[in-house]
Amino acid sequence: MAKEKPHMNLVIIGHIDNGKSTLMGHLLIKTGAVSDREAREMEKMAKDLDRESWKFAYFMDRLAEERKRGITIDLAFRKFETKNKYFTIIDAPGHADFVKNMITGASQADAAILVFSAKTSEFAAAISDNGQGREHAFLAKTLGVKKLVLAINKMDDASVNYAEDRFNEVKAEIVILLKVVGYNTDADVTFLPVSAFKGDNLAEPSENMKWWKGPTLVDALDSLPVPEKPTGKPLRIPVQDVYKIKGAGVVPVGRVETGMMKVGMQCVIAPTNFLGELRSIEMHHEAMQSAEPGDNVGFNIRGITMKDIFRGCVVADAKNPCTVIGPQDRLTAQVIVIWHPTAVALGYTPVVHSHTAQIACKFVELSKKLDGKTGQVLEDNPQFIKKGDAAIVKLQPIKKFPLEKYKDFPELGRIAVRDMGRTVSVGVVLNIEKGEE
Amino acid sequence: MSLFGGVNDAADSHVIINAQNVILKGPEREKIMAEKKKVKPPKTLMGIFDIIPEDFDALDDLMKNLVKPAVEKEEGFLETYKIEPIAFGAKKIIARILLKERTGGTQPLEDAISNLEEVQRAECTMVSIIS
Ligand SMILES: Nc1nc2c(ncn2[C@@H]2O[C@H](COP(=O)(O)OP(=O)(O)OP(=O)(O)O)[C@@H](O)[C@H]2O)c(=O)[nH]1
Ligand SMILES: [Mg+2]
Which of A55, A80, B1, B69 has a beta carbon 3.0–4.6 Å from B7's, enabling a disulfide? Predict the structure, then answer.
């Protein structure tokens, strides 16, 4: 039997109107995720609605049609395949409040397609000091998106006219930006010219851009390196829920983030320190002897009660427990403030989310304010930080918080700061300082 | 609309600097300001929600009688769902819900579902623009 193709999560980002939805819609047609027949029907429907120029963006709305025809719906997001891979693609909402779903949800992106329009005014807006092209690049980096496919779009536009010069000009500006943000533009970024609307260089080389010797969008996606499963790392399973089940007892449930889980191993629970033997593992109601990163499992630990394990706990190998920080400790984080009605100052105590845990933490030090454009230190110990600022801060949890440094376990080292039901800030854990108990 | 706010913000009166750190002025700046000021009607989003019930019987009734109205009250639309076995008899519901992009993200919907007595917890795990 053929080996199953690896799967990757993609997110599509970029400034308003640069062509993200059009690109996603057309990509789904070109890769056969949406059939020709459906495409024609949709085109007709879109035409009837007199919004022809939106015909590909319109594809995203196939739902009414699906419902009408009673097609069984695949619950997952837009899926397509290339020669060597399966992809799920998300057209990310622009609103800051949705960033939390990327941090605590299952949608951590393996790579991003960053779209920039080559049209002069659109490009200038996207890359300007508070353009979203710039912001999204910064955010993608902060959230650990390692690879970018940089689609320089609207090459068909009259002002661009498929010109190689314009492509190079735009590319040069983006290279400057991405270097500042921290991407290695040679190793981690693939640049390519496309027309999302006309379809140039999406799946086949473009007749209109014979000068282009690089890959098509589909080729670029197909050759993205598949992130390795962190099987060799110590075991970490953030607990999502705990059930009490007749006959089975206490059953914690979660996704294995790193390491291997094996029946018979000694486990330790952070932060309760409960120690016990792993008796059994089940996935989709089937018993398993072991589980690996990405598996959603329920399990059973000898002697455990509901007070020893709850949502937000982390299960680890007894030989290599998860780090826990308490009120006597400090965590240093690099954060970006994405929304705050006034400003973040010392003493501010919002709720910090990481993996499945939510713990109130106090801002006890604003160490450095960074320039969002250059990453340079702008100010030591600022009085406050506000929307748009990047900063290094120290936080004190009000109670025990199982957490890891981003560099050791990215999956357990990302944080989202929430207040009044909104996302205030996102960032990564740089360091953990242990204080006296 | 912007991740750091911006499109409709006072912060937009900012000087505009291009990647070479040149401050733009005059018509060039005006053109960019016009691009930035574009305001669009809220987008329709599709969210995938995990719903963890208190117990595992009559989940279709739970969805029909309680979750659906709760979602609609928050101006969402419960489009479809499936029931998935987890382990040792535990089940969860995975629901696909349409919603409008708005302040607060998916929180109001998560709260509305979680606050039902028959539900332990609800969480949006993925969200994408559909139109
Ligand atoms: N000429 C030309 N127009 C394009 C191209 N791609 C997109 N457009 C047009 O640009 C406009 C915006 O396209 P969308 O795909 O909605 O852009 P978006 O980035 O998803 O916009 P938001 O979601 O609102 O931020 C539409 O009128 C498209 O038809 C392209 O390759 N060439
Ligand atoms: Mg769009």
Answer: B1
